[in-house]
Structure formats: structure tokens, C-alpha cells
Amino acid sequence: MTIDVATESPALTSSTWIDVCRLEDLAPERGVVALMGGHQIAIFRTFANDVYAVHQRDPFSGAFVMSRGIVGTRGDAPTVASPMFKQVFDLRTGECLDAVGKEPLSLRTWPTRVQDGVVHVALAGADAEESP
Amino acid sequence: MLEAQDTQHLVVVGGGMVARRLIDALRSRDEAGRWSITLLCEEPRAPYDRVALTSYFTGRHPEDLALGGQELWDDPLVTLKRGVKAEVIDRDAKTVTTSGGAVLDYDALVLATGSYAAVPPVPGKDLRGAFVYRTIDDVADLRAYVEKRREDLDRPVRGAVVGGGLLGLEAAGALQALEVESTVVEFAPRLMPLQVDDGGGEGLKRLIEGLGVTVRTSTATSKIVGDRGTVSRMEFAEGPALDVDVVVFAVGVRPRDELARECGLEVGERGGVIVDDACATADPAIWAIGEVANIGGRCLGLVAPGYTMAEIVADRLLGGQGTFPGADLSTKLKLLGVDVASFGDAFAEEPGGLEVVISDPVAGVYKKLVMSDDARTLRGGILVGDASAYAALRPMVGRELGGDPAAYLLPEGAAAAPAGDLPDDAAVCSCNNVTAGEIRCSVTEGGCTDLAGVKACTLAGTSCGSCLPLVKKLVTTELEKSGVEVSNALCEHFDLSRAQLFDVIRVQGLTTFSEIISTHGRGRGCDICKPVIGSILASLGTGHILEGERATLQDTNDHVMANLQKDGSYSVVPRIPGGEITPEGLIAIGEVAKEFGLYTKITGGQRIDLFGARIDQLPTIWKRLVDQGFESGHAYGKSLRTVKSCVGSTWCRYGVQDSVGLAIALELRYRGLRSPHKIKLGVSGCARECAEARGKDVGVIATDNGWNVYVGGNGGFTPKHAQLLAEDLDTETLVGTIDRFLMYYVRTADRLQRTAAWVDDHEGGLEAIRAVVIEDSLGIAADLDAAMETHVDAYEDEWAAALADPEKLRRFGSFVNAPDQVDDSLAYVAERGQPRPATPDERTSGVLIAGTTLEVRR
């Protein structure tokens, strides 16, 4: 598969791109979790083969479960729903699109890119240093 | 008691339904708190739903008969005195003396003492085993007596009901429910002589005899013969005697007007406190309402006019000028499962009426409409066997029907109910006196958007419920008119409902989500539609739930075949069919729990739940369980969970059938069946019902002759007892019946709709479902049977299949870039010798703390 997708922001000068896994390790429309710089990061591949990285911690329940949510769409937005209480987040921004009656809380996101079939996540300098 | 200076005191004597309504009405209107109220209730309980008394036999408990909200009794202006009778009224002193000796002052007094059940002066009427049918206590005594007699006699109990009117048929229904062989004895030449004509009575008799109740009309009881003080035989003026063990008198009611007589108030010739059309007696401080009131020269034994009287008195006490508009004696009842309705000028007493009659003895239906002489205006009617047209017809009395009257009498579906164009002033709910206009208004101005909202707002349909289909139609029509789309759409990706989607996928033979959403939806789905389609595909037997793209449709529980817990760990439940397990099985589960440090708990479904497994431990845990002969318990799925059973005839002294054997067979048959929501079954080996089967979606209870099957039971948020679907089935017929019921539910229910709600929402309710399942009214039975056979044949253990497929096991890794690292977000502390998730405080204070392998068992 030769897909070259990058969603990084050009302003990310002090961050480091870190390899996570091969794109083919990611099943379309499901997530996996990676351990990076002391963070648990959920990585999703959508049907359109875009790759997104968000915090594994569900802000509503505090449990580390986001990679196990159902991937889909709301309008044009690629989404993941928390498997715990079903709040829906925009994978691109982490914005909460449906708080299921709660005060909305958003999800931290990280930039991603795919190069030569390898998925990279950009960690900010501070994050990268925490790496064991 | 907090009382304003000018608060007056109202004493209500008699704690029936009408008294409750009076107090409700007064408290809701008397905003200034002008009246404080004392209610004297002779029975030891607050007013209850006497109309539903017979349902006490079909499993309801006394508390289920409670009326309305209990907060009324917490109102500081309302004092409820239970088990207290009014003994004497002193009109000069304006006091009531109670059975407890208290003397209460009153400014106003309302007599709502109701009636007592009349007992004819037949010799033997006081023998043990002779009952009346009026209060919860009467009914409870009757039940206790019948059960005791059955044990003593060791044969079916035989019973008779004296009186073939409304109450008599209710009582016969109660005897039937107690499995008493019963005979109804009626003095008049037909059943329900006050409500139906000869044709209707004949139809009714045929239907009721079809249910196994013997009917003897034109028969006068002359004597009840006792054997050692206990009822044993009945003799009649003509015809052979009848051996009976129990007799219920249901010959009518007499107003309880003795208090009024004693204090010198005028009573009618046949009893009843005489009141004017304001419900006032000759004493300006005393009123009478309900069955004890003699209004317009007669006493009225129905609850609807009683409620009207209660409203009038409430209005008058607050200075209003309400008057009694005359009683609507319309009734619709289901007696012994037979619909009977009578409304308006049912006997065509008004001159010049035309009668349109449809009598179909084969279908067991008798229907009559009484029309004006030009055949345009509806005056009244009688419906026996099928009263589905009642809700639509009753409000049309006195109005032009528009169209051929006969069209209204054809079977349901042949003619459209005229709900849309009902005039605003037509009374739709006669129990609570709600008009079509008020229902419409609750939608257009009250902001109600569904049936439940309208019920709460207007009270329509909250008493007997017979008008609900009509209320629903009115609400839907009004919502559509006001532009609110009554949408069945599943979510933003599909315009179809789950049931429609099921049909489309089944008929077109679609097998992948991408295919389904590209042809029938839009976007890429969401957490609502994806699991629904995953479930539909699984119900249709398209293979393993984690095969290929189907894995993306599953909620995390189905995706890892375990139950997600609050901290992100999972629990594991191996199947223990019928709750039967060998010592070796128990030991094997115990060893797995011990090795993986899992918290164990016995579930409500008679199996064992193992908590605290990390996602990456699930395959190892299941490898061990599968090797020991266990399989997935589907505790994680919207699918069959368990079939709970009591120990049954194998061990139990009382059991009459092998409930465990049947439960195991049923659990093995339906295991893995994916459905709109979870499904639970129960099997009890005798009527004592230790398996609590009637709290299940399908409950089976053993009888001497086979099995009774109940459906639509539910624990959870709104508990509901299952209702009887069929009786005395042999095992093969039972299984076939459950097959069809479940498959029909799987195909047609909404997303996350349990069977209880599905039965309620199904057009025509349980009757219609019974017709589909048992009589094959839709011609789909063979199809349902075949679908269930396919399911049974195709069953495989999901966990064994997943363990055999490396591709499926990939999803259980911990970290994609560090597969050997363990998730350190999970932390446990010991409690009562087992691990439990650490609380946030415990995590921050660092008291604990261990991963999932915490050593706690010593």
C-alpha cells in the first residue's frame, strides 16, 4: 500500500516524529493503542485511509479505552465514540460532538503522517523526553 | 398540620377510586390551600384500582393496583387514615365519629362509601367456600381458599359464579386463572344482560364456553348444600344439581348508604343517597359521589361517572358551578380474554333507530351499531369478540359517521379509524374525561412530542387504557400536521428503522456493511447504526462476528467478546446452561480466577462472572476455559444471556416437570442468537415459580399438563411481569412457540427495545403477536421456523473459533508498538479478600497498588 497522508501542522518545529507501526498493522475503522513518551495514544485508520492519533484516556470516564471505540462519521467529520459512555469526538480536533447530556470535554490529539507505509506520530519536545 | 386561618376541613368517608380522584382534583385546584382533607379508609390500604382487581390473579401484586402518585398522601393538607371506619355522623354538631373513637369536625363531608357486594338470600350462602368479589381481601381469601382446597382434594377444584354480568364474568376469569373448572350461572336469559342484547349475549356465551367455562342462563340458584360446613353442591330451580367446591356471588352491588340513613339523609327506593346534579344532598354540608350516590334516580356502578362526580364536588367546594352532565355508561372490557364493549344507545331504545349487525359465529364476533333513522348519525353499539373499533366509535356517538356504517364493523385494517377528523369536543378518554381537543392542544401548545408525554400531561389513557390506540393516532396526526416529523430513522446515516433495515438486508441478501450503507445509507456509520447492522448480520447467520469488515461494526464488548468495566478492564462469563455445573467445572473456573487474580461473583443469571481481566489476557483466559469444556456465555452480546431454572422435579418435592433439563435444552438451542437487546429466559418446575420466570423475556412455568409460556417480562428500570402467551403445551410445541416468538422479535423490534416494550408497542399488542406466532396470521411462521433452524444448525462457539484464528487474535494485543508492556493504567486494591479497582483517591495517595495479578487470596 502506498499511501502518503500527513496531517501535521507546519508550525511543529520542536516536535519529533516517532514511528509507531506499519499502516497495514492498522485495520480500517478500528483503533490500536501505542505507548509513546509515557503516553497511551490511540491511533485510528479511517475508511478513507486517514490516520489520527488521540489520547487513549476517555476524558469523561478517566479510563484508558478510546482505541476500542467505534469509528464512523458525523457529517463530514471522522469520529470515534467512547466505548464507555458513548460520547462522540471529532478525530481531527478532539472536539466533543456529542457529550450525551454531559458538559463537553475534548480529547487531546497528536499530528500524524504516513511515510513509506509507516505511521508516525509527532510528539512535542517535552513529551518525547518522557520516553523511557 | 399547617393550616391557614381560614382553612376549612373536608372529611371524605370511603377510600375508593372516586375518593382518590376527589382529593387529587381538589389538591390540584385548591392552590390557596382553602381545604384540609381527612380521608377515612375502611380497608387497610390507600385507594387502589378496583377495576383491575382480576389482574391480581394473573400475577400482579396488591401494590401494582396502587393508583397514581403516592406523593398525594405526603401532602401536609391531606390526612389518610387507613383501617378507620366512620361510625356516626352528627349533622347538627357537624362531626364524624370514627371506629377508633375519634370525633372529627367537618365543614364539608363527602360520602364516597361505594357499594358492597350483594349476596342473594339463598340457603347455604354463609358456608365456607362461598365468597363475594369486591376487595383485594375478598380476592386474596378466594385465592387462598382455592389453593388450600386443591391441596386437600388432590384434584382440580370446581367452582361456580352466581351472576353472569360484568362482575360475574370478571370473577369467572379469576377462577379460570386459578385453574378452577368453572360454571357461570345467570338468572337472565343471556350473559351481561345490562350491556348486550340477545345476539351479543349468544356470541359471548359461545366465546366463553370455547374457553372451557360452562354457562347456564335462565337458571335460578335455589340452594347451596354443604358438607361439614363447606360448600359441596348447588341446586337450581330447574335442571340438574352441580357439584362445586367454591361459589362466588357476583349478582350485583348495593350502595353502602347506612351512614346516610342513620343521620336522616334521604335515600332512594333501591338505596343510594339522593343527590342533585351538583352531587349535593339536602344537607348543604354533605355531598355524595360514586356508587353510593343516587343521581337522576339511580346509582351508577362505573368508575367514569364517579370520577365526573368527584370533579364536580371538587369544583363546587371551591365555589364553582359544575353539574353532572348525565352518565356515559359505555364500557369496554376484556373478560376471560374476550373483548366486550357497549356504548351509547346500545339497545336502540330511542325510537326510529336502525341496527346494523354483523354476526359471525365462526370468527366468534358479534357487532352491532345503532344508527339514526337516516343511517347517518351513530347512536350506540355493541361489540363482542373484537372491540378494536370501540376507541374510534365511542367518541362518535351523536355524530355523523360519514360513510357506510358497516365499514366500521369489518375486521381491523379493512376500515380506517376516523381519528384524524374527530371533533375537538369528542371525549376520547372517558375515565379521565379528556377530549380530542385537549389531546391536540397538549401537542400544539403543551409541547408534548410523544404518547408518553401526552399521557402524563392530559392523563388520557392512564386508567383503563382502552382509548390508547386512538390517543396515539391523534398525537401522531397532530405531530405530523405541526411539521414534527415522526421519524423512525435509525440515525443520521440511515432513514430506515431497525425493522425495515432487517427486512432490506434479509430480502436483498446483503452481507457487508459497506454494501448496506452505500445502497441504503450515507457516510460511514456511527456507534448507533454499526452495532445494529452487526447484530442484524449476525442474526441472519452470516458467520463470525469478527470476520473481516464485520469486526469494525462491533461495540467493544462484542469486539473482544467480554464485558467492559468502569476502569477499562473486562469481565469474562463462561456459559453455564441452566445454571447446572459439575464440581469439576466449578474448580476449573476457580483455578482460572485464581491464576489471573480475577474478582469472582455469582450473577443473577446463575453463572459466574470473572472481573478484572486485561484485554491482552482474554485469549489466554479463554484458552484455559475452552480447554476445560466451557464456551462463550455471550454476557457481552445483545443476544441470549441465560435460561434461569429452579431445581425442578428431579429433586424438588413440589416440582411437576424437569425444569433444569428444559432450561439447558433452551439455552443450548438459543445460545448465540443475536437480537435487538439482551434476551433472558426462565423455567420454573411448578407454579411456585422459584426461577422467577415471569420476570424474563420468555418465562416457562410447568403445569400438570405441560408448560405455560409467558412473554414480555422484564426486570431493569421498568419491571414488568411476562404475560401468558399459551398454556399447557407439550415440550415440542413449547419450543416451536418460543422459536417463533423470538425470531419474530429479532426481526421486528426497534434498536435496544426489550420484548416488554416491543409487545406493548406492537400493533394490536400481545393478541396480535399471539396470532402471528400461534395462528400464523401473517403467513410467516414457516419462514420464522426455518430461520431458527438455520441459527441452531450454524451455531459455533465464538471464542473457540477466535482462538483458532491468528488474525482474530491480533486485536487483543496490549500496545501496538510494545506488545510486551502491560497497561499500567489499571490498579487494584484488596477488599474482602478479592481485588477491586482502585478509587481515584487511592491512586493518588499510592496506598495500594498492584496490577491485575494482585495477590489477595490467602
TrEMBL record, chain A:
Q: Which GO terms describe its biological process?
A: nitrate assimilation
- Pinpoint the Rieske domain residues: 18-121
Question: Per its record, what are the GO molecular function terms?
Answer: 2 iron, 2 sulfur cluster binding; metal ion binding; monooxygenase activity; nitrite reductase [NAD(P)H] activity; oxidoreductase activity, acting on paired donors, with incorporation or reduction of molecular oxygen
CDD domains this protein is in? Rieske_NirD
Instruction: Write down a Pfam family by its short name.
Output: Rieske_2
Q: Write out the entry's keywords from A to Z.
A: 2Fe-2S, Iron, Iron-sulfur, Metal-binding, Nitrate assimilation, Oxidoreductase
Which InterPro entries would you find in this protein's record?
NirD, Rieske-like_NirD, Rieske_2Fe-2S, Rieske_2Fe-2S_sf
Q: Which residues form a coiled coil?
A: none
PROSITE patterns reported for this sequence: NIRD, RIESKE
Q: Entry's NCBIfam families?
A: nirD_assim_sml (TIGR02378)
What protein is this chain from?
A: Nitrite reductase
Q: Which organism is it from?
A: Knoellia sinensis KCTC 19936
Organism ancestry: Bacteria, Bacillati, Actinomycetota, Actinomycetes, Micrococcales
TrEMBL record, chain B:
Where's the NADH-rubredoxin oxidoreductase C-terminal domain? Answer: 330-394
- State the needed cofactors, names only: [2Fe-2S] cluster; siroheme; FAD; [4Fe-4S] cluster
- Spell out the molecular function terms from Gene Ontology: 2 iron, 2 sulfur cluster binding; 4 iron, 4 sulfur cluster binding; flavin adenine dinucleotide binding; heme binding; metal ion binding; NADP binding; nitrite reductase activity; sulfite reductase (ferredoxin) activity
Q: How is the cofactor bound here?
A: Binds 1 siroheme per subunit.
EC category:
oxidoreductase
Record's catalysed reaction(s): hydrogen sulfide + 6 oxidized [2Fe-2S]-[ferredoxin] + 3 H2O = sulfite + 6 reduced [2Fe-2S]-[ferredoxin] + 7 H(+)
Domain (Nitrite/sulphite reductase 4Fe-4S): residue spans on this chain: 637-776
Which keywords are on file for this protein? 2Fe-2S, 4Fe-4S, FAD, Flavoprotein, Heme, Iron, Iron-sulfur, Metal-binding, Nitrate assimilation, Oxidoreductase, Thioether bond
Sequence ranges assigned to domain BFD-like [2Fe-2S]-binding in this UniProt record: 428-475
Give, as in the UniProt entry, the pathway in which the protein acts.
Answer: Nitrogen metabolism; nitrate reduction (assimilation)
Question: From which residue to which does any coiled coil extend?
Answer: none
Q: Which InterPro entries match?
A: BFD-like_2Fe2S-bd_dom, BFD-like_2Fe2S-bd_dom_sf, FAD/NAD-bd_sf, FAD/NAD-binding_dom, FAD/NAD-linked_Rdtase_dimer_sf, NasD-like, NiRdtase/SiRdtase_haem-b_fer, Nit/Sulf_reduc_fer-like_dom_sf
Binding of [4Fe-4S] cluster, residues: C646, C652, C686, C690
Residue ranges constituting the FAD/NAD(P)-binding domain according to the UniProt record:
9-293
Q: Name one GO biological process term.
A: nitrate assimilation
Instruction: Give the Nitrite/Sulfite reductase ferredoxin-like domain ranges.
Output: 565-625
Q: Which Pfam families match?
A: Fer2_BFD, NIR_SIR, NIR_SIR_ferr, Pyr_redox_2, Rubredoxin_C
Binding annotation for siroheme? C690
Q: Which NCBIfam families match?
A: nitri_red_nirB, PRK14989.1
Q: What does this protein do?
A: Catalyzes the reduction of sulfite to sulfide, a step in the biosynthesis of sulfur-containing amino acids and cofactors.
Could you identify this protein by its name? assimilatory sulfite reductase (ferredoxin)
Q: Which organism is it from?
A: Knoellia sinensis KCTC 19936
